[in-house]
Amino acid sequence: MSAVHDPTELAAEAPGPLYASRVRVYPRAVRGPVRRFKWAVLIACLAIYYALPWLRWDRGPSMPDQAVLLDIWNERFYFFGLTLWPQDFYILTGLLILGALSLFLVTSVFGRVWCGYSCPQTVWTDLFMWVERLIEGDRNARMRRDASPLSLDKTWRKTAKHAIWLGIAFWTGGAWITYYVDAPSVTRAFWTFNASTPVYFFTFLFTGTTYALAGWAREQVCTYMCPWPRFQSAMLDEQTLIVTYQGWRGEPRGHGKRTPDAAQARTDAPPLGDCVDCSACVNVCPTGIDIRDGVQLECINCGLCVDACNEVMQKVGAQPWLITWDTLARQAARKQGQALPIRWWRLRTMLYAGALLLVAVAITAGLVLRPVTSLSVLHDRAPLFVPLRDGSLRNGYTLKVDNKTPHATTFALTTAGLPDATMILSEQSAAKRHELALPVAAESVGTFRVVVQGRPTALRDGKQPLDFVLRDPQSGRRVTYRSLFVGPHGS
Amino acid sequence: MPTKIEKDSVTGRDTTGHEWDGIRELDTPLPKWWVYVFVATIIWAAVFCLLYPSIPLGRTYFHGLLGYSSRATAMREVAAIDARHEAAMAEIGRLPFAAIEKHPDLMAVAMTDGRITFANNCQPCHGPNGEGRIGYPALGDDVWLWGGRIGDIQHTVTVGIRSGDPDARSSQMPRFGVDGILKPEQIQAVADYVTALYGIAKPGRDISAGRQIFADNCAMCHGDKGQGNQDVGAPPLASHIHLYDANRATIVAQVTNPRMGVMPNWNHRLDPATIKSVALYVHSLGGGQ
Questions:
Q1: pLDDT in tens, A428-437
Q2: Is the pLDDT score of B162 beyond 90?
Q3: Do the beta carbons of residue A122 and residue A302 sit within 8 Å?
Q4: Distance CA A323, CA B280 (A)
Q5: In chain B, which residues have their Cβ closer than 8 Å to the Cβ of A391?
Q6: Rounded Cα–Cα distance for residues A242 and B66 (Å)
């Protein structure tokens, strides 16, 4: 609806209070397809959240067998068959960018459906409201009880509600921890009082935040704390599908009987619209707003008012979908009696979708092309070379071998570029070999000090290239690192 | 001071009177709980000041009821690390080298301790990474005056060379020139022979005289082929690397009036476990045998 208003009317009375109590929202229960869909999303989200850490995934001996584990202490993130090392963090950054772009795209097409259906704040608030309704009854009963003086009935219901809330919150806080440490072992440690202080601290911290945010703060998180509603206006446009009250159909609203045309002619009043002004849409709203005021900051686009209004429209025998999902452009056209198609593809959605595709391809490529074995070689800074008794030279190197495979692997190291070169693993044995065996545990980095001995034949400016060739005997994969063999100048 | 405080007709609320390009700001009251949170932070601060060190009192300070001190915490952690280190060093002192090398954790402690001890005590002569310098042996090459096995290194570090320690490794090269054992021309001849061993001889020079003098006077310690003898600390002469410079004049000077290096005994400065760590570190530099 258009918001033409005249704000020039000067305030007559003294300025209002600086602080105001929160106006309590008592959302009424509602039934309908939207509500059923919202329950389904809620159950799916919560099931994933609580169950995922318990999913096992065999990675072989001495490796964590949790499917999803963010092992911060050991600097490894496990996602099913994928293990991310700190140097793979760009992939995680890419996933976050992917998440942000998806949010932009979905919001520009369907409005704030993230807020309305899958935001944790919405999901847990919905769950807490369901508990509240179960114990304290629906909107009217709750309002009546809250207004009544303290009684046994009120006491036990409030106590029971908060106890169950705290229980859910504790379960939620505990589940959070299991994403960071092995779920079965930390659960056992928790209940035998053997878990570490951070485990207890974060469990109770997230218990507290869940209880406070979903039980008490609720819609205030969305209106006061969350930045998303503030910049959603940059994603929404007149072609976005949003929960819309069809003012052209509903107004003028009124309780009165819808009079037949003949009787209508005898009165001066314009015919009433479809809106019977029953306030059902306001009563079911989890953020306590009136959708008939148009799109507004507080609206999380959950569509519960759609279900509520449809129920009433059915009762009064009017067409349903007085409140529906529609775009501002189509509503403006409807007002003129025209029908416009929904424009899914606009520059905005095409740009978001294109960027989304690009990042998705880049991440997939990054994952597929990610080397599972890598070798880096650091030449000793001093001494650059050591001359030996027989006139040959020794160069010292520090090798780092990344083994990103889930198997302990013994790599074979050879050199190329220096005829008849021999190597010594100087920290382990004095034996000279042409091929070294470098054992590296699964998913870890092996560090080796290697001394290469040989007679350089092609020194130029005191150095010549020397290749280290690392071979995985199982897969046959080779990694080559080009380093230098250093000798005296002018030889 | 804003002057145009108006009532917004949509919300029925006052505006603040601020206006930016036609956009007016509603004067929405702050939620009360927000104010309570603000008060709670003040109370939190007061309680924090009571519990933790907070108020400076001239030369001292109020320690707080909990008596917390970040320095004391850090020192406790340092003490814990020291205790762990001491336990590891005790193991290093107790176990033979072969057992230490099989134990990666002990080996890591030994290598770190050895590296630091080397930097503090050995590097002024042997160089930061054991590269050596003239008169001071390089430790990464394959020439060892007194043996390059790990036990040899440990013993050398412990008792030193010509250090004055009763068990010190010691040997004496005769002063062939100064004491008149060899005549100057004999010294010149043996120097010719030794340059041949070094591989820097001038071509066409007759070295047979020098060879005989060498066999009679030098081979006893340096070996008949100039291969050296670690039992007496005699350096190999048939080699490309030398403790002193590799030229004929240096050979003549050394035969005439030899320089002999001294390495201190470290048994009075370093405990046996630390010496073992240094030996492991030196052995790992690349020359260990």
A1: 888 899 999 9
A2: yes
A3: yes
A4: 81
A5: 199, 240
A6: 56
